[in-house]
Amino acid sequence: TCRWEKYNESLVDRIQYLTDLSFIKDYDTLLEEKNNGKIGHPYKVPDALIMYLARLRSIFNIPFRSLEGMLRSLAIITGIKSISYSEIFRRIRRIKPEINNTNSKLDCIIDSTGYKITIRGDYLGHKWHKKRKGWIKLHVIISLKDVTVLSFTITDEHTHDSKAARKLLSKMKNNILRIFGDKGYDSKYIYNMFGYNAVIPPRKNASTKSRGSSTSSS
């Protein structure tokens, strides 16, 4: 169906933008700008590369040591410098999120990812009888065109994606042309708000009846 074709194409576009390496062509200029006025040891890599690694880690949950391995391979191919996983960690920690306030209508993606509150493993927590601290969830709306953050909220692990989406989408609905998401956002609220412009695959247990939404079968 047209809905599934749009969703599949959105997944392809999402990966294309998340793994975009076009900044490499301006690498030297970006690095020079980063070090302009820098006191002490100069930065080895520009912010654009750190943002690239941060996107990969956020979406695919890649460990920092694995990011270092990927960067080493990229350095061999492109000739750029590599940095250690600890430096990647420090640079990512220093990133200040910039929210793009826009008045135009955009194709957007809504998604969420979980983060442990502690770095302690579950095994150690069980061994030493430490109370499990759980996860926090980051829910975010990003522009499909350039992967900039448009809105976000943080909840505990028990908050369902579709519930958090209500808060985000109610603020952004006038700026969204189409909204893309996974089956966690298959809800009547979203379909009633965006109609056929909500490109979301149905859940496995979705009903064949609309039950209050002309564009939903959930």
Automatic annotation (TrEMBL):
GO MF terms, alphabetically ordered: DNA binding; transposase activity
Record's protein name: Transposase IS4 family protein
Transposase IS4-like domain mapped to chain residues: 107-211
Any GO BP: DNA transposition
